[in-house]
Structures are given as structure tokens and as C-alpha cells.
Design brief:
The complex is a heterodimer of chains A (331) and B (272). Chain A has 331 residues and is of the alpha/beta class. Chain A is built from 12 helices and 13 strands. Chain A has 2 domains: 192 residues, Rossmann fold (3-Layer(aba) Sandwich), CATH 3.40.50.300; 68 residues, 2-Layer Sandwich (Alpha-Beta Plaits), CATH 3.30.70.1650. The chains are: A alpha/beta (331), B mainly alpha (272).
């Protein structure tokens, strides 16, 4: 479906020097610095996949998306989307894709929202029946009815984002690129948007590529993630695998009725539990352990036998922690 | 059928610009007032010039003809001047061009329809009233009106609109490479003003310069239609002037295509 191979994008910039004197100097200088935003990346995405494309600010996410949508031409390498080279066949490619740039809107600012949809209907040449069906579907999953007749400039960010998502889907594209679709939204709207994305993927088999800084988006939506840092792919694979590989540390916090002594707790460390990290604060025990060696139930069982446990909670490593770890030292 | 639906897809870009422009009423009034002052200045300037000479005609222009020239070239320049290059450089600067490029529509056609929206606005707000007034003045001064000249003027102005569009569009595409176009476009505006005949008739330039100017696209936008209206271009020279207009449209359209094909690869989308 999408085939990206050895993709590279360099930007040439006039070299800038600091300060006022520097500004004059750079005005006259012909020196350029080349910044490589995307550095030799390759991946392929199948139909119906939901792929999370993540990385820190300036890692090259948006640049890649822009090349896949055909509005930037790569310096080297190639992209194929449905067998089309997007940057050479921009208009043809555009018919089959939908794009949401979280920071920019594609809605007509001064017109009522409904007008935007009828304009898009003409632009994408959607016939009446399909248009009606799709509008009903979108209205159902994104509840657009309430603000359908309001001018776009009066919409709240959450309404606008829902409308933008609907606008990207009006022509039933084969691929949807979502560049930070939940940026700046509150929890409820985020949840709605995620549900809608999920439903679109499920009902229509739309391939979805998503960039985001909100890792909950990833956990809820994606079955595969690609992590990019400094223009290079540092991880490409399933969400479960990465969790197993890097997210094996789990911690348990147990609350006990009476105060406890450290020696009592130490006694639960047996041969296969050497790696346990124990911390005791008043009547709370905090245990960090490797899930691949010891199971949670084993530890809980031991504690229950020994103490009067009032309450306990288990915290697994979040994708957040994993990504932080990956950004820092690569894989 | 295909053509019809295409037209439907682009038409909203024209109506949208029209609606947007017409909603700023105060802007219209202030703009017209400012332009009227400019017009009054050149009117009195030319009167003074004609008073100071013993000739009744300068370069074949009587004072009355000169006044009509000033009015008509002024009206024509208001009618045709659509600054598409500004729209393009704005889109490049704020990055909104990205949104437009992900739609399955031609950028050139879209910009052309936006320009038409602007032309329609100019037509409704300025042209209808201005053109009627000038015809009345013409009738008062000259004593008769030539329907043929009026029709030819309208055709020539429409060609002028296309020349101006393609020129402005091509110029605007430069902003794909040069992000801040302000300085360049200021220089360009002054050159266009001088060479299009908007300030003084091109007949007033030295003969060699005249020849050169007739071969540039600018005189075809304002000077040619105005001279046709005044009945100063007839027979062979009329056909020649109209042909030059058409040739320029073709040349500029080809340049626009070539520029697009090379520059779109160099485009850097800013922001986001």
C-alpha cells in the first residue's frame, strides 16, 4: 500500500550568525548549511494498518508526512502510495488521500461548515448518494449536527478538529494522514476523536498514519509504531513487542494495616527474587521487579500470606517511559 | 460533463473572494477616496502642462483626450490589477499552501478563479459606475461615442486581465524560493506603473524606449485598451496590438507552467 524506500530530505539554509553583527555578516555571506531532516528511512505499510509515527519535535515526522502526501519532493529515495509517486502525481494522489494537519485547518474560514462539505463534494467529485451516506456516518461518529450551520471561525477547537477529521474523510480516501489530530483538545473530545478514527478504520478498512505527542493516542489506536529520532528510524514494530522488550519493569505498591520493619519484608526475597527493589515507607511497601522473571501474582501471594494487606496497586511501564528511554540512547 | 463538474469545483474560489471583499465596506470607501485624490492630482497636473504650452495638442493628445486618457487608464488599472502574487506569497509564508496542495485541484486554476472573483468585485464596485461616467465625459468632450471602440475596449481589457493574471501568478511563484517577497514586489509595482501606461501615455517616451515598451507585457495590460477606447489604435495597428496581447498570454502561460514544474520541487512548507 505504502512503500517508502531510502527516503532522504535535506534543507539548505543560509548560515546565520548570532547578534546584530552576525546578521549583517550572514546577509553578505553565501555560506549554506545543510540540514538533513529525514535520513535514509524505509518502511512499508499494508492496507488497513493503523501506524503511529512518533518522535520528538523536529525529528522529521511532518517532513515525512509531507513527502508521502506529495507536497514536498524528497532529495533522495522514493515513495509509492497505491502505486503512485505522490510528489510527481500530486493531484492524482490527492484524490485517494485525506489529510488532517492538527495545526492548520482545511475548512473555509468564513463559510458555514455545511458549505465546506458541499465544496469538498465538488472538488473530490463525490456523487450524491455516497456523499449522503458518508455524511450520515460522520455525523453519527463525530456528532457534527449541532454546529453544521455555524461559520467555521466561530467553532471551538474541539468542534473544528472533529469537522476537519470529517472533511478529510468525505471522499472515502484509501489513506488518511493525521498530523497531531488531538493537539490541544480536552480529554472528552480526544476520546471522541479516537473513537471516530477507530471506527473509520474498522468500517472502511482505511489505512491510517498518525503522528502525535500524546502517547495515549498510540496506545488506543495503533497496532504498530515507528519511532523516528534525528531523521532516522530507531524502532519499527508492534506495540506489544516494544512493551515486552523495554517495558518489563513493573512496580507494586502495597498498603498494610500495621507498620512494618524492613527485615520482615526482606524475608520474602527468595532465590528467584534477588532482583527485587524494595522500599518501605511507614505502612507502604514499594516493589519494583522484572515481569519476565517474576510474576505479579507470585509477589502479591507472598505478601498476602505474610501481612494484612489493605490495598495494592500495580503500575506497568507506560509507552511514555519507553519512548523517553529510546530517545535518549537509541535502540 | 467533465468540464462542467470541474468548473463547479473551482467556482467557489471565485465567489468566496468576491464575498470576502464585498464584506469590507469601509475599506472600499477609504480606498476609493484615496484613489480619487490621486486622480485629481493628475488631472490638475495635466491641465497645468497644457496651459504652459502654446500647442493645443501634445504628442497628438488634446487636453480633453488627455483627461479621458487619464480617467480611462486609471479605471482600467483598477479593473485589471489583481495581486495574485500577494496571495501566493502569503500562503507560502504562513504555510497554508500545504492545505491547498493536498487537494486534487490545480493550483493555477484555483488562483485564476480567485483572480476572477476579485475582477468581478472590481467590476461591480468600481467599473460599472466609472465606465458610465467616463462615457458621459467622452460624449461631452468629443460629441460622439463609438460602440465599436467600446466593445473592442472591453475585449482588450479582458485580454489585459489574463496577461496581468499570468504575470502576477508567475511572479508570485518566485516566493516558493524567496520567502520574503515584499521588497521585490514593491520594485515590481513601480516598474509596472511606469511601463503599463498607467502614469503617462507611452507615446510620451522617447521613440526607442517606446519600441522596447511595446514588446513588454505591461503596456498590453493598460495602455492598449485605453488607446483603443480613445480610437487611437485603428486598422493594422489595432490588429497588431490585440495580437501582441494574445501572444503575451500564451508566452506567460507557458512560463507559468515551466516555473511551476521547477519551483514546486523546491517548495519548503513552513511551520507545523
Amino acid at each position: 500500500m505504502i512503500e517508502v524506500s531510502n527516503l532522504k530530505k535535506e534543507f539548505k539554509m543560509n548560515k546565520k550568525y548570532p547578534g546584530f553583527k552576525g546578521a549583517i555578516k550572514s546577509f553578505f555571506s553565501r555560506e549554506y548549511i545543510t540540514k538533513t531532516a529525514v535520513d535514509n528511512i524505509s518502511f512499508s505499510i499494508d492496507k488497513g494498518e493503523v501506524v503511529g509515527y512518533i518522535g520528538s519535535n523536529g525529528a522529521g515526522k511532518s517532513t515525512t508526512i509531507k513527502m508521502m502526501t506529495g507536497i514536498l519532493t524528497p532529495t533522495e529515495g522514493s515513495v509509492f502510495v497505491n502505486g503512485i509517486i505522490p510528489y510527481e502525481n500530486r493531484q492524482k494522489n490527492a484524490k485517494d488521500i485525506g489529510v488532517v494537519f492538527g495545526q492548520k485547518t482545511q475548512l473555509w474560514w468564513d463559510l458555514p461548515l455545511s458549505e465546506t462539505f458541499s465544496l469538498l463534494k465538488d472538488i473530490y467529485e463525490v456523487d450524491d448518494k455516497n456523499f449522503k451516506d458518508r455524511m450520515n456516518f460522520l455525523d453519527e461518529v463525530l456528532s457534527l449536527e449541532d454546529f453544521m450551520l455555524s461559520p467555521v471561525r466561530t467553532l471551538s477547537l474541539g468542534q473544528r478538529m472533529r469537522a476537519d477529521l470529517a472533511a478529510a474523510f468525505i471522499h472515502n480516501p484509501k489513506v488518511i494522514y493525521l498530523d497531531e489530530p488531538t493537539i490541544g483538545l480536552d480529554v472528552v473530545v480526544k476520546d471522541n476523536v479516537r473513537k471516530a478514527i477507530k471506527k473509520i478504520n474498522k468500517d472502511f478498512g482505511t489505512t491510517i498514519i498518525l503522528t502525535t505527542h500524546d502517547l495515549n493516542d498510540i496506545e488506543e489506536l495503533c497496532n504498530r509504531i515507528i519511532i523516528i529520532d534525528n531523521g532516522k528510524i530507531i524502532y519499527d514494530g508492534g506495540l506489544k513487542e516494544i512493551k515486552e522488550k523495554y517495558g518489563y519493569m513493573t512496580s507494586i505498591e502495597v498498603q498494610i494495616k500495621t507498620n512494618i520493619k524492613t527485615e520482615d519484608v526482606d524475608s520474602i526475597k527468595e532465590a528467584n527474587m534477588k532482583h527485587l527493589e524494595l522500599k518501605v515507607i511507614d505502612n507502604k511497601i514499594n516493589i519494583r521487579f522484572n515481569k519476565n522473571i517474576t510474576s505479579t501474582t507470585e509477589i502479591i501471594g507472598k505478601l498476602m500470606n505474610k501481612f494484612h494487606v489493605i490495598d495494592f496497586s500495580i503500575t506497568e511501564t507506560t509507552i511514555d517511559d519507553i519512548v523517553k528511554k529510546l530517545y535518549r540512547n537509541g535502540v | 460533463m467533465k468540464k462542467k463538474s470541474q468548473f463547479k469545483a473551482y467556482l467557489p474560489f471565485a465567489t468566496n473572494v468576491f464575498q470576502r471583499l464585498i464584506s469590507y465596506k469601509a475599506n472600499v470607501i477609504i480606498f476609493l477616496f484615496g484613489e480619487f485624490m490621486m486622480l485629481a492630482t493628475s488631472y490638475y497636473l495635466w491641465r497645468a502642462i497644457y496651459k504652459s504650452t502654446s500647442n493645443t495638442a501634445i504628442n497628438g493628445f488634446s487636453l480633453n483626450e488627455m483627461i479621458i486618457y487619464v480617467l480611462m487608464s486609471f479605471l482600467t488599472s483598477l479593473m485589471i490589477s489583481v495581486d495574485i502574487s500577494y496571495d501566493i506569497s502569503k500562503e507560502v509564508k504562513d504555510g497554508s499552501i500545504a492545505i491547498n496542495l493536498i487537494k486534487p485541484i490545480s493550483y493555477e486554476k484555483r488562483m485564476m478563479f480567485q483572480a476572477f472573483g476579485n475582477v468581478m468585485y472590481n467590476f461591480v464596485v468600481i467599473f460599472i459606475l466609472g465606465f458610465t461616467s467616463i462615457n458621459i465625459v467622452f460624449y461631452k468632450y468629443i460629441g460622439s461615442l463609438s460602440i465599436a471602440n467600446i466593445l473592442l475596449y472591453i475585449i482588450s481589457t479582458m485580454l489585459g486581465i489574463l496577461i496581468n493574471f499570468y504575470f502576477s501568478y508567475t511572479f508570485g511563484l518566485l516566493s516558493f524560493k524567496i520567502t520574503n517577497m515584499w521588497g521585490l514586489s514593491q520594485i515590481m509595482q513601480s516598474i509596472v506603473q511606469l511601463l503599463s501606461g498607467a502614469l503617462i501615455p507611452i507615446l510620451f517616451f522617447p521613440r526607442i524606449v517606446q519600441k522596447l515598451i511595446t514588446f513588454l507585457p505591461f503596456s498590453s495590460t493598460i495602455y492598449t485598451p485605453t488607446m483603443i477606447y480613445l480610437g487611437k489604435l485603428t486598422g493594422i495597428s489595432l490588429i497588431k496590438a490585440l495580437s501582441i496581447q494574445i501572444i503575451w498570454i500564451v508566452i506567460l502561460a507557458v512560463i507559468a507552467k515551466l516555473m511551476w514544474n521547477t519551483l514546486v520541487k523546491k517548495l519548503t512548507i513552513l511551520g507545523g
